From TrEMBL:
UniProt keyword annotation of Kinase present: no
PANTHER family linked to this entry: CYTOCHROME C PEROXIDASE-RELATED
Transmembrane stretches, start-end: none
Record flagged with keyword Cytoplasm: no
Protein's name according to its UniProt entry: Cytochrome c551 peroxidase
PROSITE patterns: CYTC
Chief place where the protein resides: periplasm
Top EC class of this enzyme: oxidoreductase
One GO CC term on file: periplasmic space
Species: hydrothermal vent metagenome
Record-listed E.C. numbers: 1.11.1.5
Length: 295
């Protein structure tokens, strides 16, 4: 082989090795920063999202899906879980403040967070007051600014529908007691399955070719600038953080939400972030570029 060709091959091989090493370094850096991939295998994923005391089954998921989309769970019979967490719109509603019972905007001007990947959150609601999805699912149904349906009303409506009674028995056994918490548990079981793996997970799982060079550069900057301090873990968010920036946030005056009793706010997930505008707890910013500058 001519010398020039040998040199070209050697340079190419060296370049490929260098790029591969850089990708490996970035994967390691991302994991050290706390960024965690969604598991590749269903078995490993189920270890994270399933509850041995109330295992996920196809029957429960299908029933939970029907309940999630059913507006009869609201006082008016017009609003379902999907109204504010529209699965065709990134798992939220695409408006700054959630619209609830009586078609009135949320009195605290709170934005609907996406339901996708919410199973990975450390806490639910913007103030983190709910520890898990089964507990969280009870809140919006009863909350006056949202679905405004008392627990007994929801239970009575479900018990008045023979098809639902049959499905609950099929999912939980003939001796099942259909209670409001059981209804919420079933919705939560469906929500647990709303997991959306992405090329980012493939990258963290070892496939260096799933991200473009620009995306890798962005990931490196994301870590270096400290974004991963709050947007971390498998949800790339979902943990309670002190939102000290709230005092500087130029739209802090929109709504009266100030976080929990410590001033902590649940960090929103960055998964599917291009589909979940507007941003921040009060939905005051419409573009990612502006949101990044604000932070």
């Amino acid at each position: 082989m001519p010398i020039k060709k040998l040199i070209s091959v050697a340079v190419l091989a060296t370049s490929i090795t260098a790029v591969s090493a850089h990708a490996d370094d970035l994967m390691d850096k991302a994991k050290k920063a706390g960024l965690t991939p969604i598991p590749e295998s269903t078995t490993e994923l189920m270890k994270l999202i399933d509850d041995p005391k109330d295992p996920i089954t196809d029957a429960k998921v299908e029933l939970g899906k029907k309940l999630f989309f059913d507006p009869r769970l609201s006082r008016s019979g017009l609003i379902s879980c999907n109204t504010c967490h529209n699965l065709a719109m990134g798992g939220d509603d695409g408006v700054p403040a959630a619209i609830g019972h009586g078609w009135v905007a949320n009195p605290h001007h709170l934005n609907s967070p996406t339901v996708y990947n919410s199973v990975f959150y450390a806490a639910q609601f913007w103030d983190g007051r709910s520890p898990h999805l089964s507990d969280q699912a009870q809140g919006p149904i009863q909350a006056v600014p949202e679905m405004a349906a008392p627990a007994n009303l929801v239970k009575e409506r479900i018990l008045s529908i023979p098809a639902y009674i049959a499905e609950f028995k099929g999912a939980y056994g003939n001796d099942v007691e259909i209670t409001f918490p059981k209804i919420a548990d079933t919705i939560a079981t469906f929500e647990k399955t709303l997991v959306t793996p992405s090329p980012f997970d493939d990258f963290l799982n070892g496939d260096e070719n799933t991200l473009t060079n620009a995306e890798k550069k962005g990931l490196n900057t994301f870590i270096d600038k400290g974004c991963s301090s709050c947007h971390t873990g498998i949800a790339i968010g979902g943990t309670m953080q002190p939102f000290a920036q709230a005092a500087k946030y130029k739209f802090a005056h929109i709504g009266d939400f100030k976080g929990d009793e410590r001033g902590f706010v649940k960090t929103p997930t960055l998964r599917n972030i291009t589909e979940t505008a507007p941003y921040f707890h009060n939905g005051a910013i419409w573009t990612l570029e502006e949101a990044i500058k604000e932070m």
